[in-house]
Every structure is written in structure tokens, then in C-alpha cells.
Write a structure and sequence with these properties.
The chain is mostly beta strands. It has helices at about 5-10, 15-20, 125-130, 195-200, 315; strands at about 1-5, 45-50, 55-60, 75-80, 85-90, 95-100, 105-110, 115-120, 125, 135-140, 145-150, 155-160, 165, 170-175, 180-190, 205-215, 215-230, 235, 245-250, 255-260, 275-280, 285-290, 295-300, 305, 310, 320, 325-330, 335-340, 345-350, 355-360, 375-380, 380-385, 390-400, 410-415, 420-425. About 5% of the residues lie in helices and about 45% in strands. The longest helix has 10 residues, at about 15-20.
């Protein structure tokens, strides 16, 4: 089912009815109906809290992260959500977008300073055109975002008396106009075909996430499962020997193609941290994490993996065995949160994809960055909120031009509590 809402509105009354039901907002910009402007230039901090009755994400804004004490105790604006909110801000920080993940509704807020946020318009219910509630969100730029999901499991299929294979999976993808809070394009049936040879080995794509747009294409990281074709069940004991990326035309979502490689291996979708990045040449940098064995970075050039390029992070950090994503700050420099072998102790490495160097940074022990969503770079500095769970920490301000393990300053003091921790700086 493919449709472009702009064309549907002009073509048929039913399209107009669906368009109206998907977005109740009649405010197209970043100001309230009364003309009030949002505060620009502040940092947005996000904090997760899990109580006995619900999960919640709180946000607040600050002009300076270098000094002082930051606390979410009896302070912060609660973003309505069933579980941890997918949260993004505009480039200037004046607008905040929050997706209620298991419901599929997106809301926009104006930032008015501190813990003060004002709703802009109504909610956009992206689940209506896409036909699935459990959508994930990625902001593409200040004008557009993408929502996406992989619905029902395709499962194995008996195609002959002697051959069993996996069926191609389908994804649900939508392009959101953030200015008008509407779905411009949606497709409920994006075919994701790994190819006959790979599907006959039991592989399927169970998740997509972290899209980036370059050269008229949107690139999605893919999570792979491998089924035992005799039992018809997912089997985690089987090796994963591939990595895959889905590409579609942007913004039309046409011409889906799955790019597959063996020179890096593992999942490329990440979790809540971005996992694909566009470099200065328009190439796509892809991190693959192979479930407790290896972390590596590959590159897609002109729509295919460049097999001459591979940055093996684990080879330089022997205890680094998994990662949920990474942050590319430009000019080849990136920061990679990773977990140590056999523990939940997370670290951070500075990576230079141009010269292949990897440096373990001297950050505190006891971190859990599995849910960490985002961090920002400004004026040659990269900011991360690093605090052990139920402990005290700091905003770490890294010098992106210095590769030393201690090339950072400790900024504002932060504290995590039981079931509560920082999940990003926007």
C-alpha cells in the first residue's frame, strides 16, 4: 500500500479524511498561535525514570553545561509516553519532538527556557497510515523525520519438497513533515529482500532503524535474525556472517534494495543511539555489532559496501564486544559507546575513521549506556552526560581535535538514582 498524502488530498475525499485524522495540528511553524518564539541556543537534557507505575522521560534546557549542578529532582518537563520516549530537538533547540514509541503518536513542543515547554498544535498519529503502533522515529533534518517499523515475522517457507527458505520481510516507513506535522509519504509494504542465497540460510530482517539521507536515498540499518529452518524458530546459536543495510529512494520510498556484505558482520540498526552517519563525501558510515563478538565500521559508496574499507574496533580494544550505536562529529572523528566483555560496564572510545585509530577514553567505570540516545558537538567540543547508575558523574566535554585519553574537561555535576539516569544531550 503506497500513497502520497499530498496527491491523495487532491484526488479523493477519503484521502482528505485520512489526512485530517492523522494530524490535528493547524500550526505549521515553531511559534505558538499567539506569536511567542521559543528559546534558541540552549542544550536540551533528557532523563529517564522508571517508577512502580510507569516509565517517563523528562527534559530540561540549560545555557551552560560547564559548571554547576544539574538535577531532575522535582524539576523537568515530563514528556507523555508509555515507555522511554524517542526524543529529538531542532538544531537551534527551540523545538522538541517526542514520539510515544508503542503508541505511534508524535508531539511537538516549544522550549521556553528551563523546564518550561508549550505544546505546539495537536498530536500526529503516524500509526494510522502505517498500520502499526510500535513505530520508531529518526529526525532527518529540521524539516523532516522518518518513522519506521517491521511488522509481522515472515518466517520460513517450504518452496519445494527439499528446499525451505525465509520469506522476504516487509517494512512500514513514513516521511513526516515536521513543519506541518503531517505524513507526506507512507508505505506499508517496503519489501526487504536479502536475496535467495542468504534467505536459504535462514536469515531475515527483524528490525530497521537509524536512517540517514544522502544522494536521493534513505539508508536504514538492519537487524538480522537467523532461523533454524528445520525447527522454524530463531536460533541465537547459529553464526551471523553478514551485515545488511536497506536503501530506498527518498522521499518517494520507492525502489527498495538491501545491500549485504560479509566483510563486516552483525546488526547495523543500533538501538536508540544513531548507527549510520553520512560523511563529508556523501558516503554512509555503518557500525556493525555482532552480539558479543566484534564491533566494526564499514562504508557504503555509491549504493554498495566498499569492501576495501573496514575499521575493526575490537581489534584495538580487546574487551569491546558490543555497541548500540555511535556519534560522528565530523572530519573523520567519532565517539563510540561500547560494552566490555562479560559485563554491563560501558566505556567510550574516540575513533578516527580516516587513519583507523581507536583510543579508549578515561571515562568513569560503572556506566550503562545501553539506552543512551544522543549527544551533540558544538564549536569543537563533544558533550556527553556520563554518570554511573545510582551514582554521581559529570557532563564530559571532549576536545574533538585531541586524541589523548584524557582530552576532556568535567563540566556540570550530575547524579543518577535507582531506575533513573541520563539518556542524552540534544
Amino acid at each position: 500500500m503506497k500513497f502520497n498524502f499530498l496527491n491523495s488530498v487532491l484526488a479523493v475525499g477519503m484521502g482528505l479524511m485520512m489526512f485530517t485524522s492523522c494530524s490535528k495540528s493547524d500550526n505549521a511553524g515553531g511559534e505558538e498561535p499567539g506569536g511567542q518564539q521559543g528559546v534558541k541556543g540552549d542544550f536540551q537534557l533528557a532523563y529517564f525514570s522508571k517508577g512502580s507505575d510507569a516509565e517517563a522521560t523528562y527534559v530540561q534546557g540549560l545555557k551552560d553545561l560547564n559548571t554547576g549542578d544539574i538535577s531532575f529532582k522535582n524539576f523537568g518537563f515530563r514528556l507523555p509516553a508509555t515507555v522511554t520516549t524517542r526524543f529529538y530537538s531542532s538544531t537551534d533547540g527551540s523545538l522538541v519532538y517526542a514520539l510515544d514509541y508503542p503508541v505511534g503518536t508524535l508531539a511537538k513542543y516549544m522550549y521556553l527556557g528551563g523546564q518550561n515547554y508549550a505544546r505546539v498544535g495537536g498530536e500526529l498519529n503516524a500509526s494510522i497510515p502505517l498500520g502499526v503502533n510500535a513505530l520508531r522515529l529518526t529526525k532527518i533534518d529540521d524539516s523532516f523525520a522518518m518513522v519506521h517499523a517491521v511488522g509481522a515475522t515472515a518466517g520460513p517457507s517450504q518452496i519445494s519438497e527439499s528446499v525451505v527458505t525465509m520469506k522476504p520481510d516487509t517494512a512500514q516507513i513514513g516521511v513526516i513533515n515536521l513543519q506541518n506535522m503531517r505524513i507526506d509519504v507512507a508505505d506499508r509494504a517496503v519489501i526487504m529482500d536479502l536475496g535467495d542465497d542468504i534467505r536459504k540460510l535462514g536469515y531475515r530482517i527483524f528490525r530497521i532503524d537509524a536512517p540517514v539521507v544522502a544522494n536521493g536515498k534513505a539508508f536504514y540499518g538492519c537487524g538480522l535474525q537467523r532461523y533454524n529452518l528445520e525447527t522454524g524458530k530463531n536460533d541465537n546459536t547459529l553464526p551471523r556472517e553478514y551485515a545488511a543495510v536497506l536503501q530506498v529512494d527518498y522521499p518517494s520510498l520507492k525502489n527498495p534494495k538491501v545491500v549485504v556484505t560479509q566483510h563486516i558482520k552483525g546488526n547495523t540498526n543500533g538501538y536508540r543511539t544513531p548507527n549510520l552517519h553520512k560523511d563529508e563525501d556523501g558516503n554512509i558510515l555503518v557500525l556493525a555489532s555482532s552480539s558479543g563478538k566484534n564491533i566494526s565500521i564499514g562504508k557504503i559508496v555509491n549504493g554498495n559496501f566498499d569492501t576495501s574499507f573496514k575499521l575493526d574496533i575490537t581489534a584495538q580494544l580487546p574487551t569491546a564486544v558490543s555497541s548500540n550505536g555511535w556519534f560522528y562529529v565530523g572530519n573523520g572523528i567519532a565517539y563510540v559507546p561500547y560494552s566490555d566483555s562479560g559485563s554491563k560496564d560501558w566505556r567510550v572510545a574516540r575513533v578516527n575513521v580516516k587513519d583507523g585509530s581507536v583510543v579508549k577514553l578515561d571515562v568513569p567505570a560503572g556506566l550503562d549506556l545501553s539506552d543512551y540516545q544522543y549527544s551533540v558537538a558544538r564549536n569543537g567540543k563533544f558533550y556527553m552526560a556520563l554518570s554511573p547508575k545510582e551514582g554521581k558523574g559529570n557532563v564530559y566535554i571532549f576536545d574533538v581535535n585531541n586524541a589523548a585519553p584524557t582530552a576532556f574537561t568535567k563540566g556540570a555535576n550530575i547524579t543518577s538514582a535507582a531506575g533513573q539516569y541520563y539518556i542524552g544531550i540534544f
